[in-house]
Amino acid sequence: MTDAPAAELTLDDAPYLDVADPAFSIRSQAVKDARAQSWFARTPYGIAVLRYDEVQKMLRHPKLRQGSHLWPQHNGVTTGKFATWWCNMLLCQEGDTHARLRRMANPAFSPKLIADLQPKFQTLANRLIDAFIDRGECDFIAEFTEPYATGVICDLLGLPFEKWRELADIAGDMGLALGVTFKEDLPKIEAAIARLFDYAEELVATRQANPTEDFIGYLVKSHQDNPDQLSRQEMLDMIVLAIFGGIDTTRNQIGLAMDMFIQNPDQWRLLGEQPDLAKAAVEEVMRTRPTTTWVTRAATEDFEFQGLKIKGGTTLHLYGQAAATDPAAMPEAERFDITIPRKPHFGFGGGTHHCLGHFIARGDMTAALALLASRMKNPRFNGEVTWLPDSGNTGAIAMPIAFDKA
Amino acid sequence: MKVHVDMSICLLHGQCVIAAPQVFSFDDEGGLVWLAEVDDSLRADVEAASDACPEQAIQLGD
User: Which InterPro entries does the record associate with it (chain B) (predicted)?
Assistant: First the structure.
């Protein structure tokens, strides 16, 4: 390192990461080596940003926009309910429209609402743990993280817990739209989103008849008070986003938490003894093993960043996981320790598109980890874990574990 | 009412700028600027900004 002014950098000099290879791992030595060598790498999609300060700055860079809006088009899908919803919903909007929608949505996800939900999270977690605790083993995904993540959404929507399976299946089918087989799965995806909109319509109708102070109640009231600020369609799009965005992410993230704790049994023991550490545990898990390992941005025009010329239209992936575990960014960055104060992680993205549901996610994961660690001792793998690819969105599909009942 | 932002935890996400654009804004260098004293007519917006801040960095006083 020198103090000389940044020389002009070119993409050709940067390390290359073959992110499109199904065997590529975001946690591989290749990524760590690239990060040590350069703040950016070339990928088949564009540019990967690998270090802490650069990721933090680029998350809210004025010349970058959220980069997911072209996804359906890139897959040859330009019509249908899914493509229409995707292109109109909050995540794919920018500027004034985004600000207006976000202003309408934020109060429905405020931290005040979460305080009321905390006892429900605990009841739900205990109910699920009760079902397998005497057996000393379970499939942690099928028996805990999936029904828990979906059950939280049921609580949020005011649906009975028994609806969880149906909702999880719909979200699973819709999730196919984020995969490489998007186009062939389109009929399934379209059927799923149609069912989700039917749900949203029904939920809105019940709130219109009997106003409530829950998440949907807030949106219905916002729409009624300011129909020019939140149209009926925008309200329905937002409900569909909340259901779709809240299930897979939380399911995967709690599974990844268990993976980290199984590899660090002293930390699980500590959490069991001191459940107040659960809040910090959620942050440490999301720093070291986030389900969303990168976020996507697209350059809106040509610009220069730290000596690198970036062309308008370039796709950039901001590698939050790599950045937040960079040894150059913080001491003992690669160690998993729920007692060390850390710099903020990027597991919820950042900037104007910062995850809308993060207060709920933080609240429900905190409740779950505190109860799991106090009721289950010595968790260990009890068979083969089936993983999603270790790329942009990751997690376990099946995770057989054994444990000792506390 | 008084508005204070704890810049030691603010990460410049800009959710306050979205919630209360008359009170919070970004300057040309991308730094956050805000009115330290605001009229009560903006109370609802400022409270929404404080609620929406992902880092909970905004403190309000009377």
Answer: Fe-S_cluster_ET
